[in-house]
Specification:
By secondary structure, the chain is α/β, with parallel strands linked by helices. A four-stranded mixed beta sheet has the order 3-2-1-4, sandwiched between helices. Strands 5-6 form a two-stranded parallel sheet. Strand 1 and strand 2 form a beta hairpin. The longest helix has 18 residues. It is globular, with a radius of gyration of 16 Å. It folds into two domains: 76 residues; 92 residues, Winged helix-like DNA-binding domain superfamily/Winged helix DNA-binding domain (Arc Repressor Mutant, subunit A, Orthogonal Bundle). Keywords: DNA damage, DNA repair, Methyltransferase, Transferase. It catalyses: a 4-O-methyl-thymidine in DNA + L-cysteinyl-[protein] = a thymidine in DNA + S-methyl-L-cysteinyl-[protein]; a 6-O-methyl-2'-deoxyguanosine in DNA + L-cysteinyl-[protein] = S-methyl-L-cysteinyl-[protein] + a 2'-deoxyguanosine in DNA. InterPro entries: MethylDNA_cys_MeTrfase_AS, MethylDNA_cys_MeTrfase_DNA-bd, MethylDNA_cys_MeTrfase_DNAb, MethylG_MeTrfase_N, MGMT_N_sf, WH-like_DNA-bd_sf.
């Protein structure tokens, strides 16, 4: 284990669906987003990703770019999170899935099978689901935008009520962005 711990700065942010936890590093890259009621899981995911590195959490002294972007997201600017700098541990396969998740447009959920196709691994649907579930950066790496084969809401680490809210929020945003003539 490294002598010098990896320091992450923690912010606790109120949202319409609960207290959100945001972790950023000293380069202001986003490392984790989770919910206060799932803080134990967040620590477990961090431990899995950074096995060889000690982690130290410190309270942030100023708002991170991630906090500002996520507050804008919850205020209705869903695309405010699209260009946030993120850094993850994980395996090569997990990082490939997480990168593909960032390519899913807000308001346009896809299935696990379609996500597996996007990474040219059509038979890896189950592995894609596991990587999706190990995603440490919810919302920004939008694992909530992946649904079951029949478009049903399937598991979400923050709870299905949050997944439903996030998808509805993004659908409202998408509808609001369309010109009136295109809404039919």
């Amino acid at each position: 284990m490294s002598l010098h711990p990896q320091v992450f700065f923690l912010e606790r942010v109120p949202t319409p669906i609960g207290q959100m936890l945001i972790l950023s590093d000293d380069r202001r890259q986003l490392r984790a987003v989770d919910w206060e009621d799932f803080e134990t899981r967040m620590h477990r995911l961090l431990h899995r990703q950074y096995r060889k590195q000690a982690i130290e959490l410190r309270d942030a002294t100023q708002a991170s770019p991630a906090r500002r972007a996520l507050e804008a997201y919850f205020d209705g600017a869903v695309d405010a999170i699209d260009t946030l700098a993120v850094a993850t541990g994980g395996t090569d396969f997990q990082r490939q899935v997480w990168q593909a998740l960032r390519g899913i447009a807000g308001g346009a959920p896809i299935t696990y099978g379609a996500l597996a196709d996007r990474i040219a691994r059509p038979t890896a649907v189950r592995a894609v689901g596991l990587a999706n579930g190990a995603n440490p950066i919810g919302i920004v790496v939008p694992c909530h935008r992946v649904v079951g084969a029949n478009a049903s809401l399937t598991g979400y680490g923050g709870g299905l009520h949050r997944k439903r809210w996030l998808l509805d929020h993004e659908a409202r945003w998408l509808t609001a962005r369309r010109p009136l003539a295109a809404r039919g």
